[in-house]
Amino acid sequence: SDLSAPNPSDAGPYKVVHMYYGSGNDKRRAVYRDSVTFKTRPVDISPYVTVPPVAADDRKRFWGFDMKKVPLNARVWYPEGAGPFPLVLVVHGNHNPEDFSDPGYGYLGEHLASRGFILASIDENFINGLSGENDGRAWLLLKHLQEWKRWNDSTGSPLFHKVDMDKIALMGHSRGG
């Protein structure tokens, strides 16, 4: 028998809003430098990642920061409306850190936001290429969630009460999973 369910690949009823949050001074990516809605403070991830000394200098030169001042960056798609909406954090896999993959979830962000979800594609490119950094990946997600709670609770925030902090999903690809 035929199912009478709607096609899950069709866009939902919500208009989609897009934004970025991050350091506001990213050396490599203009969106995290020039287009952030929320500026975030750097965090010290050094207890949770191991960077060989030779690689530490190269990484600091490339990124403009070390593991003691890691930014909280993300690309966000969310539905226009009062909410609250479930929050989905998605993390890319481990690959060449200079091949930024956090933009690759745009299609998913657009689709889920049109269906009433907030999707944040979390940037962890700066710890890619390391080994033994999985604790750092998880810890960074907790730091992102702290920011989401703060924005959701702040009356001056455009995200005030838009996030259902009781409905949070984490997903990812490869090591991001």
Can you describe what's shown?
- This protein has helices at 31-34, 53-63, 106-114, 134-153, and strands at residues 16-22, 36-39, 74-79, 85-91, 118-122, 163-172.
- It is of the alpha/beta class and 177 residues long.
- The longest helix is centred in the last third of the chain and has 20 residues, at 134-153.
- The chain is globular and about 60 Å long.
Question: What does this entry show, briefly?
Answer:
The chain is 25% helix and 22% strand. It has 177 residues and is an alpha/beta fold.
Secondary structure elements and pairings:
Blueprint: E1 16-22, H1 31-34, E2 36-39, H2 53-63, E3 74-79, E4 85-91, H3 106-114, E5 118-122, H4 134-153, E6 163-172
Parallel strand pairs: 1-2, 4-5, 4-6
Antiparallel strand pairs: 1-3, 3-5
**Contiguous runs where pLDDT drops below 50 for at least 5 residues:** none
Oligomer: single chain
**Helix content, binned percent:** 10-25%
Largest sheet: 6 strands, mixed
* Rounded Rg: 17 Å
Total number of β-strand segments? 6
Give the spatial strand order of the biggest sheet: 2-1-3-5-4-6
How large a portion of the residues is in β-strands, by DSSP E? Answer: 15-25%
- For the terminal residues, how far apart are their CA atoms? 36 Å
- Counting helices, strands and paired strands, the structural category is alpha/beta
What is the average of the pLDDT values? 89
The number of helical segments is 4
Shape: globular
